[in-house]
Design a protein that fits this description.
The complex is a heterodimer of chains A (110) and B (114). With 110 residues, chain A is an all-beta fold. Helices cover 0% and strands 56% of the residues of chain A. In chain A, the strands form two sheets. In chain A, strands 2, 4, 5, 9, 10 and 11 form a six-stranded mixed beta sheet that branches. Chain A has a five-stranded antiparallel beta sheet with strand order 1-3-8-7-6, with no helix packed on it. In chain A, a hairpin with a 4-residue loop joins strand 7 and strand 8. Chain B has 114 residues and is mostly beta strands. Chain B is 0% helix and 49% strand. In chain B, strands 2, 4, 5, 6, 9, 10 and 11 form a seven-stranded mixed beta sheet that branches. A four-stranded antiparallel beta sheet of chain B has the order 1-3-8-7, with no helix packed on it. In chain B, strand 5 and strand 6 form a beta hairpin. Chain B is globular, with a radius of gyration of 13 Å. Chain B starts with a strand and ends with a strand. Classes of the chains: A mainly beta (110), B mainly beta (114). Chains A and B meet through strand 5, strand 9 and strand 10 of A and strand 5 and strand 10 of B.
């Protein structure tokens, strides 16, 4: 089966750092993606991991441990515009489709 | 920057009617996808399409659904006889290649079935 878990909601303060976790159990693995989705809008690509370790892109970093079925997205120097849902998605081995997690709704407070 | 476009942005239809949702993928992309997101729920994969045929589909994508690339730029999703539970946001996405390539999403079409 395919199962992806994320916390439902998180709150953080402007300027702070927040870590959003994702655990997955899927039948295959060909990469893990993080997307940002503002309310009523389409998901937009943030980061991609296929090998273990940390990928850094500006204020955003993503980490993957394949043996643990675990990833996190790290957001630094939070801004109000970072208030959004963050979606963890896993691509399976042979298909091209993603299995999406339920998303984590992040609220950034002043 | 190239982007995926979708029309209409909002479609309202009566139960039992046919609807066609339209997408224009990024021009050099070869793989196309449809996803849906029921309000307040997670994004769900429907179908992927490559080389003018379906390459994978989920259990949601039953006989009521079909996809087509009628010309060199458009990619459509047809729902033959809409049901109330088809009300959702439908996202089209495209990617340049297979495997690890990032999928870029369109802005979505909100379908409301009355």
């Amino acid at each position: 089966g395919q199962n992806i878990d994320q916390p439902t909601e998180m709150t953080a303060t402007e300027g702070a750092i927040v870590q959003i976790n994702c655990t997955y159990q899927t039948s295959g693995f060909n990469g893990l993606f993080w997307y940002q989705q503002h309310a009523g809008e389409a998901p937009t690509f943030l980061s991609y991991n296929v090998l273990d370790g940390l990928e850094e892109k500006g204020r955003f970093s993503s980490f993957l441990s394949r043996s643990k079925g675990y990833s996190y997205l790290l957001l630094k120097e939070l801004q109000m515009k970072d208030s959004a849902s963050y979606l963890c998605a896993v691509r399976d081995n042979y298909g091209q489709n993603f299995v999406f997690g339920p998303g984590t709704r992040l609220s950034v407070l002043p | 920057e190239p982007e995926v476009t979708q029309t209409p942005s909002h479609q309202v239809t009566q139960m039992g009617q046919e609807v066609i949702l339209r997408c224009v993928p990024i021009s050099n992309h070869l793989y196309f996808y449809w996803y849906r997101q029921i309000l307040g729920q997670k994004v769900e994969f429907l179908v992927s399409f490559y080389n003018n045929e379906i390459s994978e589909k989920s259990e949601i994508f039953d006989d009521q659904f079909s996809v087509e690339r009628p010309d060199g730029s458009n990619f459509t999703l047809k729902i033959r006889s809409t049901k109330l539970e088809d009300s959702a946001m439908y996202f089209c996405a495209s990617s340049e290649g297979w495997g690890a390539d990032t999928q870029y999403f369109g802005p979505g079409t909100r379908l409301t079935v009355l």
